[in-house]
């Protein structure tokens, strides 16, 4: 589908984002926050970044563990937009002391 990255391009970009891995038509990372509320703050900042980018992750919250899953539904796969938001999520997690 137009805009989707091929397997080699996905693998190359994942090389620059070591916390992320591929799962089919999506990329995913887990974030461990220092506390439940710190995790919620991460989610709130990611939500703002997602709105700015008009690109929205799936988010799973389990106490201090957050899982972010990114895929471009309109394109039917992984695009540069997913990697752009992944980099933002890494910055936000680091700012909140989450890893
Ligand atoms: C109209 C709007 O741009 C689209 O619905 C956007 C919104 N956020 C989105 N987020 C994601 N992850 N995939 C999309 O295809 C998508 N589409």
UniProtKB/TrEMBL annotation:
Catalytic EC class:
lyase
Q: Which CDD domains match?
A: PCD_DCoH
Query: What's the catalysed reaction?
Result: (4aS,6R)-4a-hydroxy-L-erythro-5,6,7,8-tetrahydrobiopterin = (6R)-L-erythro-6,7-dihydrobiopterin + H2O
Write down the InterPro entries for this protein, in alphabetical order.
Answer: PCD_sf, Pterin_deHydtase
Query: What are its GO biological-process terms?
Result: tetrahydrobiopterin biosynthetic process
A molecular function annotated in GO for this UniProt entry is: 4-alpha-hydroxytetrahydrobiopterin dehydratase activity
Q: Which UniProt keywords apply?
A: Lyase
EC number(s)? 4.2.1.96
Spell out the coiled coil positions from the record.
none
Which family does this protein fall into?
Belongs to the pterin-4-alpha-carbinolamine dehydratase family.
What this protein is called in its record is Putative pterin-4-alpha-carbinolamine dehydratase
- Please give the organism: Actinomadura bangladeshensis
């Amino acid at each position: 589908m137009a805009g989707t990255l091929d397997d080699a391009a996905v693998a190359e970009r994942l090389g620059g984002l070591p916390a992320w891995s591929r799962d089919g038509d999506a990329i995913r990372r887990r974030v461990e926050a220092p506390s439940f509320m710190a995790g919620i703050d991460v989610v709130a900042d990611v939500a703002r970044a997602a709105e700015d980018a008009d690109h929205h992750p799936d988010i799973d919250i389990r106490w201090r563990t957050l899982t972010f899953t990114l895929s471009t539904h309109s394109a039917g796969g992984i695009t540069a937009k997913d990697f752009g938001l992944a980099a933002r999520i890494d910055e936000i997690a680091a700012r909140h002391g989450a890893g």
